[in-house]
Design a protein that fits this description.
Length: 418
């Protein structure tokens, strides 16, 4: 031990990044002493088992191994290892990393972006060897969607499920127009609350249709028969209403059906006024979009590229606008063939701009890519699993399950992509 101490004192030491010192046995050049290493070197540290390509939404893991400057594996934990994902749009997401306390670290994630994603790995503030890595994320295989993984009817008390929405942590909500209420379910599809009853007072409904959550988990309900939209907080307390009574003047509504929230604005399918009414979230009426373009618009959604989609029930098509109201294009025609519609109603757009349309007349859900090109449809007119009678609403959960409501079936069917 005295000899080892003497040797250490004679070393020409330099400042190091870590206070941890480790004695590693070696045969050369001093078998009686070995070699003394003082810190890991990110430049020679490596990752293993990072898959490429990565299926969208599937949880993947890879391992990071810390090494010393000469390539020897470190056998201690404690390094500050961080992993980040950067999508093609520039969105950066931190990834969970587990320290195995043996010099290895495990990163796990499920990406929500399709296309090329950069994976950056750093240790003690420095990029490790080869970082950032580029991987390709393949889109969900919607063609495989045929049968539901679960059916929910709330013990038979659900009568006419209409608009449906998925929020955070698996929570989802559906409006029941016959029961004049909104049912809210948890991540295990258990009913956790019922909001509203029939009437025209605060917190009451008359044929509620569209529902949406905002980023603060506030719930907005299109109160069709009361010609307004009501807003509720996370505890289901009434907060505010939009619409100054039935009418066609600015700020008035006539039978609103669909609703969505984006970037501080509320977009409403003002059905009988044949237009989209826009409100500021915390302020009064803002503007009108698409006046003269529609015969009974039923629902609205916003794409990732900030384009507004409007379901034109009477015209059997979907119109696209800028968020400022400038008309861009449309897709779809009347019929039951590929890419055609009969009674399109509900609409939802996933994080990669895949578009889902619930068709009331064709009793199915049709799937399109971001350009409006047909991909797939599922469902038909019957009451068996995977079939619909008067398909009304459609929603996508954060883990990419598809929720579909149907009138005559008195139920919500949940479909899994994988």
């Amino acid at each position: 031990m005295q000899q080892l101490t003497t040797k250490c004192k004679k070393l020409n030491t330099q400042p190091v990044q870590s206070a941890t010192m480790e004695f590693v046995s070696t045969k050369q050049p001093l078998p009686q002493f070995g070699q003394l290493f003082t810190h890991v070197d990110p430049a020679v540290s490596e990752i293993f088992n990072l898959p490429n390509p990565i299926p969208f939404g599937k949880k993947v893991e890879f391992t990071i191994f810390m090494k010393y400057h000469n390539g020897h594996h470190c056998s201690r934990g404690g390094s500050q290892v961080s992993v980040q994902l950067e999508s093609s749009s520039g969105e950066v997401t931190a990834v969970q990393v587990r320290d195995n306390n043996d010099g290895s670290y495990v990163a796990s994630f499920a990406t929500r972006n399709v296309g090329k994603v950069k994976v950056s790995v750093s240790a003690n503030g420095q990029q490790i060897k080869g970082s950032p890595y580029t991987v390709n994320v393949t889109p969900p295989d919607y063609i495989k969607v045929t049968k539901p993984s679960k059916i929910v009817n709330n013990g038979g008390s659900m009568v006419n499920p209409y608009g449906i929405v998925c929020g955070k942590n698996g929570v989802w909500a559906v409006a029941d127009t016959t029961k004049h209420c909104v049912y809210v379910f948890d991540g295990q599809d258990n009913l956790i609350k019922k909001i509203g009853s029939r009437g025209s007072g605060v917190g009451q409904f008359n044929d509620p249709c569209g529902v949406i959550f905002d980023c603060n988990d506030h719930l907005y309900v299109a109160d069709y028969g009361n010609h307004r939209v009501q807003k509720f907080d996370v505890s289901s307390n009434y907060m505010f209403q939009y619409g100054g009574g039935k009418g066609s003047q600015d700020g008035q509504l006539n039978s609103p059906r669909g609703v969505t929230v984006h970037d501080g604005r509320l977009y409403l399918a003002d059905c009988e006024n044949c237009r989209i009414s826009v409100f500021q979230i915390d302020d009064p009426f803002c503007c009108i979009i698409g006046k003269g373009k529609f015969n009974s618009p039923h629902d609205v959604a916003v794409k990732v590229n900030n384009q507004l989609l409007v379901v034109h029930f009477g015209g059997s098509c979907v119109h696209t606008f800028t968020l400022d109201g400038y008309y861009i294009t449309k897709f779809g025609t009347y019929g039951s063939g590929v890419g055609q519609f009969s009674g399109p109603g509900g609409i939802v757009v996933d994080l990669n701009d895949f578009i889902f349309i619930a068709e009331y007349g064709n009793n199915r859900v049709s799937v399109f890519n971001k350009d409006g090109n047909y991909i797939h449809h599922f469902g038909s007119c019957r009451s068996n699993k995977g079939q619909f009678k008067w398909c009304r609403g459609v929603a996508i959960s954060p883990d990419h399950k598809i929720y579909v409501s149907g009138y005559h079936g008195k139920r919500v069917q949940i479909f899994s992509v994988n």
